[in-house]
C-alpha cells in the first residue's frame, strides 16, 4: 500500500503533521515519516501509534506517492538529489521552502510539484496557506493538497510570482503584527498604570475582538475606524499620528522584504542552474 510521506519534523513540519492528524483529514496509518533527529518523533508516535517511522529519506521516497518535504530551504536540493532515483512518475512532491521556485525543483524532479507557504496561525486552525501547483499536477492531486491544508486553516491559490508579497501578508504577518502590538504595549506601560500582563491581556483581547468583528460582519477596516473615531475626538488625534508616521514605515518594510525575497530566489536559481549543468 502506497503511503503519504513526510520528510522533516521541524517547527513548521511538526505543526502541519500534528494539525493534519488531529483534524482527521488523513488517517495516521497512511503516514510514513522520517527526520534527522528521530527522538523528536517520540511524542508523535505515542499520540499516533499507527504512524510509520522510517529509518531514512530513501525509504519514505520509495513508499510514498504523495511526498511532503518539510526541511529547510537550504536542505531541499541535497534531499532531492538523494531521493530522486527512488521517485516514480506518479510521485507528487509538496514542499514549503520559501524562495525556492517550482521551476528550480523541476531541474531535479520534473514531475508533479506543489508549493505551499503555511502560517504559524495554522497551529490553531486559522490563517491562510498559499498554494501553487505546476502544470504536471492533475486535478485530483491539487484537490488532495488543497483539502489537506484546508484542514488547518484557509488556503489561497496563487501564482509563483505572488509568493513574496503573499508571504508578507500571511506567513510573515503574525510576526509583524506581534512586533507592532509589542511596541504599542511597551509605550502604554511607560505611563505606569497597568502591569505588563494587564496591558497585554487588554491588547490581545481587543485584537481578537477586532479580527472577529471584521470576519463575522461585512465591516471593512475603514468602517471600524469610522465607528470608533469621532470627529475631533481623542481617537482621531491618535489616528492622525498613525496616518502621518506609518505609511513610510510599511513602504520600507515591503520594499526591503521583497528585495530580500528576490535576492534569495535569484541565489537559489543560480545554485540549481549550476547543478543542472553539472548533471
Low-confidence stretches: none
Q: Name the assembly state.
A: single chain
CATH architecture of the largest domain: 3-Layer(aba) Sandwich
Q: Strand sequence of the main sheet, in spatial order?
A: 3-2-1-4-5-6-7-8
Computed Rg: 22 Å
- As a percent range, the share of strand residues is 5-15%
Q: How much helix, percentage-wise, in residues?
A: 40-55%
Q: How does the major sheet shape up? A: 8 strands, mixed
Count of beta strands: 8
Q: How is the CATH topology of the largest domain named? A: Rossmann fold
CATH superfamily of the largest domain: NAD(P)-binding Rossmann-like Domain
Report the average pLDDT across residues. Answer: 95
Quickly count the domains: 2
> Helix tally?
11
Protein name: Pyrroline-5-carboxylate reductase
Pfam family, one: P5CR_dimer
Subcellular location: Cytoplasm
EC number: 1.5.1.2
Walk me through the structure.
This protein has 11 helices and 8 strands. With 279 residues, it is of the alpha/beta class. The chain folds into 2 domains: 3-159, NAD(P)-binding Rossmann-like Domain (Rossmann fold), CATH 3.40.50; 173-264, ProC C-terminal domain-like (ProC C-terminal domain-like fold). It has an 8-stranded mixed β-sheet with strand order 3-2-1-4-5-6-7-8, sandwiched between helices. Strand 4 (64-69), helix 4 and strand 5 form a beta-alpha-beta unit. 27% of the residues are buried. The mean pLDDT is 95.
